[in-house]
Amino acid sequence: MPDLDSPQRQTPDSLMLTGFWYRALPADRVHRNQLQKVTLLEIPLVIGRDRQGQPFALRDACPHRGMPLNSGKFDGENLECSYHGWQFDVHDGQCQRIPSLTADQHLKVDRIYAGSYPCEEQDGFIWTYIPDPAPQGAGFSKPAEACEPAPVIDKFSSKYKLAYLTADMPVSVDHGIIGLMDPAHGPFVHQAWWWRSRHSIHEKQKNFEPIPNGFRMSAHTPSSNSAPYKLLRLYAAADSITTTIDFVLPNLRTETIRAGKYWFSSLTTVTPITRNHCRIDVVAAWNLFRWIPFGPGLLKFVFAKFVEQDRRTMEMQAEGLKHNPHLMLIDDADRPAKWYFHLKAAHLEAKRTGGEMKHPMTGPVTLRWRS
Ligand code: FES
Ligand SMILES: [Fe+2]
């Protein structure tokens, strides 16, 4: 491990991790018998829903001569390429028909595949599994299988509300993620008269512990820093409120706040779109405010403000990053960012060697900073 006392120079490598599920787009933007263009990890995809409403994801390039399949004709079952009319099953990508073949030409049509990706709908989003690049020749590979289901939000009662927010960020996924876990920008970026100002900066201490593929800010009574916490205080005694924040590779930030029978849960993801572009999606579930009509609207308003402040900041940051400046990570405020880079490197190393992943944290750690 590098010396943690001096500022660490580090340039995010913008490497995008394959072999994981990623949020592709909000479920309410994909309708039956319709197609949507999406880019994930620089892969062009066409995403749609079949006649039954089941989502699917195909590589947006015909295996014949690369025509974007989103320009094709979709009948709710098969997708017909707009160039030479080859037809593909949308779920496994298998070719069904090549119109130019004569009766005595016995090309094995069913051995041809348009690349297809495992696809799931979960908590208001369509998720797509991006496998490691396949070594087989393009056009003949069967769809990869995901080794686990797409991530879900923890819920603690049968009735709850769900809402999402999404924002494009013109920075690499690494900057998106370390911006998300960065505690020191709060008083400068997220100022508001009803919230906090730079004059409210004070010293904080938080406990962290390693978890598989990530780290956890241990369950604690929040120090008044998060928006849902401020709202929750209206419902429960301050000392009965606990919050846990997890970060898990490749891009998952989970926040769980519990106060007696009330709970608030969110799953925020930072999805690599291209090397220099990512998207932040926040999905929240909660069982509070059900009796206040403006509750969900208020919550969404608060979150939208936060995400917009982050987006504007990263837009400006992107200007500075154009010229490849050296970057630093300092202790303790940037320690979570260091863990993120180390986790990523450890994950890739384990994959390369086939061995076990070596977690960068050996045990619980207490971090201190002012924010
Ligand atoms: S390019 Fe798609 S059928 Fe020829
Ligand atoms: Fe922020």
Give the SSE map.
Layout (H helix, E strand, L loop, with lengths): L7 E2 L10 E7 L8 E6 L2 E7 L5 E5 L13 E2 L3 E3 L6 E3 L5 E3 L18 E2 L1 E4 L2 E6 L30 E9 L3 H8 L5 H4 L13 E9 L2 E7 L6 H6 L8 E8 L3 E8 L2 E13 L2 E10 L8 H27 L6 E2 L5 H19 L11 E6 L1
Antiparallel strand pairs: 1-20, 2-12, 3-4, 4-5, 5-10, 6-7, 7-8, 8-9, 11-12, 13-19, 14-15, 14-21, 15-16, 16-17, 17-18, 18-19
FE2/S2 (inorganic) cluster (FES) binds next to loops.
Rg over CA atoms: 23 Å
The strand order across the widest sheet is: 13-19-18-17-16-15-14-21
Question: Approximately how much beta-strand content do the residues carry?
Answer: 25-35%
Total helical elements: 5
Q: Can you characterise this structure?
A:
This protein is α+β, with helices and mostly antiparallel strands. The protein contains 5 helices and 21 strands. It has helices spanning 173-180, 186-189, 227-232, 295-321, 335-353, and strands at residues 8-9, 20-26, 35-40, 43-49, 55-59, 73-74, 78-80, 87-89, 95-97, 116-117, 119-122, 125-130, 161-169, 203-211, 214-220, 241-248, 252-259, 262-274, 277-286, 328-329, 365-370. The strands form 5 sheets. Strands 13-19-18-17-16-15-14-21 form an 8-stranded antiparallel β-sheet. A 4-stranded antiparallel β-sheet has the order 3-4-5-10, with no helix packed on it. A hairpin with a 3-residue loop joins β16 and β17. α1 (173-180) crosses α5 (335-353). 30% of the residues are buried. Residues 1-5 have low confidence and may be disordered. The structure holds FE2/S2 (inorganic) cluster and fe (ii) ion. FE2/S2 (inorganic) cluster is lined by residues 62, 64-65, 67, 81, 83-84, 86. Fe (ii) ion (FE2) binds next to loops.
